[in-house]
Amino acid sequence: MTDVVIAGAGPTGLMLAAELRLAGAEVTLVDRLAERSGESRAGGLHPRTLEVLDQRGVVDRFLAAGRPVQAGHFSALRLDFSELDTRYGFTLLLMQAEIERLLEEWVAELGVHVRWSTAVTGFRQSGEGIDVETSGGTIHARYLVGCDGGRSAVRKLAGIGFPGTDATMTAVLADVELDDPPAEWIFGERREHGDFAVIGFGPDWYRVVVDQYDFVADRNAPISFEEVRAALLRVAGTDYGMRDPRWVSRFNDAARQAERYRDGRVFLAGDAAHIHFPAGGQGLNTGVQDAVNLGWKLGAVLAGTAPESLLDTYQTERYPVAERVLRNTMAQTALSRPGPHTDALRAEFAELIRQEPVNRALAGLISGLDIRYPATDPHPLAGRRMPDLDLDDSTRVFSLLHQAKSIEVKFAEGELEAVGVRPDGYVGWVSPRVAGPHQGG
């Protein structure tokens, strides 16, 4: 018997496993793959995700492995993250394979090890728990969470619909060495037949991405290195001397979201709950934050310190976040299409982004720092992320969240008396300082 079975050992599943262990829950983490593929669909961590890792005391591991860059963008129009109210005003370039390695090391320290070659094949729910059928046998649990990607077996077995929009374009990707790379570490341009980007992730290898519009490839068809080279030559006019591919892949701009994130004792998180074009690099980051939101709630219910109804707030809070991500990635794709009309639109949009309020709004959107959850407390701070304030005892707010427990921050002066902070770092309630008669009007 275990408390929670997590299907899928990617970033979302690993983060959820960590959150549940910090809450004292027993976790069984399974994955249908035989081992890690070493592939990296995502390539960076945004400010809010770095804050989440800081709240758990592990952010230094990721900072040491990655490279901070001012690389925030909206449809390849640069955003300035440096003025955001955070200690992490940048994107951390770090391949998904490395992110997974670091997360897996952490969850192993917490007592969870991945059961590879273990696919979820069915489940039976009851009032007492859920029997999860896997290729390795039946696992008795209290809950099951599908973190098993866009083609989620858990979502399909639960009969949860996955509506959305079909693909309109195809992108190809290759991690390669380049004999004649662009001068910039991050380089991209729009051309007559599409757009492309070249991103340097190391001293001798690069990620090349080519977007091809009004062409939808069969997502099940194999892809070759020569197909990526041909696409880059057609769009960019050069292949930059690309050779020795580490990995090639293909993806598109289909945008879909699960009709619901919960079915009784079954939950969905990450790509199992939402897929979209990777514009702005929001996918992995959204999934990790799904996990943190669901993790503390499941942990509290399992510990008996919160009612079962708390679990319903997972969809209430996270569904609108992913809905907004789907919307903005669709907008970014539309803003990237080739043609003179889009050129004119981009020129106008570029002028707008140079204005500080617009940059701040879009940077908050892409970085995840502007998220506000519904709150019963009417105070404007309720539901927002708690900033990492320096405290009088030489600690920081985030250091008090390392064990994933709620905290109360008291203020000696100012308009606030105390703020209640949830385990995921969002403000649950606010106690304003009440003016006494001696303070006058």
Automatic annotation (TrEMBL):
Report domain FAD-binding positions: 2-329
Enzyme nomenclature, EC number: 1.14.13.127
Q: Which InterPro entries match?
A: FAD-bd (IPR002938), FAD/NAD-bd_sf (IPR036188), RIFMO-like (IPR050641)
- Which cofactors does it use? FAD
Q: Which Pfam families match?
A: FAD_binding_3 (PF01494)
The GO molecular function terms of this record are: 3-(3-hydroxyphenyl)propionate hydroxylase activity
**Record's keyword terms, sorted:** FAD, Flavoprotein, Oxidoreductase
Note whether Oxidoreductase occurs among the keywords: yes
Give the residue spans that cross the bilayer.
none
Q: Which SUPFAM superfamilies match?
A: FAD/NAD(P)-binding domain
Recorded hits in PANTHER family, A to Z, give: BINDING MONOOXYGENASE, PUTATIVE (JCVI)-RELATED, TRK SYSTEM POTASSIUM UPTAKE PROTEIN
What is the name of the protein in this document?
3-(3-hydroxy-phenyl)propionate hydroxylase
Query: Which organism was this protein described from?
Result: Amycolatopsis magusensis
